[in-house]
Amino acid sequence: MATLEDKMEDNQPSLKENIAKLISEYNELREDKFRLLGRIDSLTKEVADYKEALRELKKKYERLMVAKTVESSKADVAKVSKRLSELEQEIEYCITLLMK
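RE: above sequence
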């Protein structure tokens, strides 16, 4: 019959192997942690860059909308000016007809 000491001696290699395995897994997880932390930093910077680009695009969009409004106002002014000229010519024509 095996004594308690015999059983402990039989388990020692297994225990040492388990400890070595745990240490190895710990080191792998630690490396993964540092790699993932680096990735998080990289992605955080990328998000900040995208947010800045979005802000710039919003500013450009607002400027474009203002420019379009001003442009359409200029076109409207040109249309109104043309229409006024036409009306002026019609009035002059009517006056000419009345004077005859």
